[in-house]
Amino acid sequence: MNLQNIALISFGYFEKDLLEMTADAVKQEFSTPVLLKEGHIDLSDFYDAARRQYDGNSLLRQVDSMVVPDYSKTLGLFNVDLFIPILTFIFGQAYLGGRSGIASLYRFSNERYGMIEDSRFVLDRFRKEVIHELGHTLGLIHCHHPTCVMRSSTYVEDIDLKDQHLCPKCRDEIGIYTL
Ligand SMILES: [Zn+2]
Ligand SMILES: [Zn+2]
Description:
With about 180 residues, the protein is α/β, with parallel strands linked by helices. About 30% of the residues lie in helices and about 20% in strands. The chain has a single domain (about 5-105, about 120-170), classed as Collagenase (Catalytic Domain), CATH 3.40.390.
């Protein structure tokens, strides 16, 4: 796998620190340069009034049409509630072995689940989700290793149980050598 670089495009408001720490984690995990930039689209075009959520399939196509030239992978970062028709919600999704994906921060705060807010959890979950979706763009499917970041996660509790890293088998599959 010739992974030269990754572009992360944020849409809407994000804390700068959170974006920078996420970009750092991506840079380290994939040993590749990471570009962080802001994107501007009208999110109301993607709002489904009946579901009161945002259409994850249309947003993924939109990000795919905005891939950054000369960057091998582009991930769109959002802070809105995403859905696809067959699921109540999604944290993110990506084209398997493709050049783009999306991830949302929206469902990662503890407050949403009636727990005390702790921004460390939000950052921790978001980094894992971003690395997970990038793993899909690199052709990785869900992994059964107990703590691999490519393990499938339906709820935030599932995300909390895994690491922010690829397991040795997944690293090997995309050609990143394990130390
Ligand atoms: Zn997945
Ligand atoms: Zn794995």
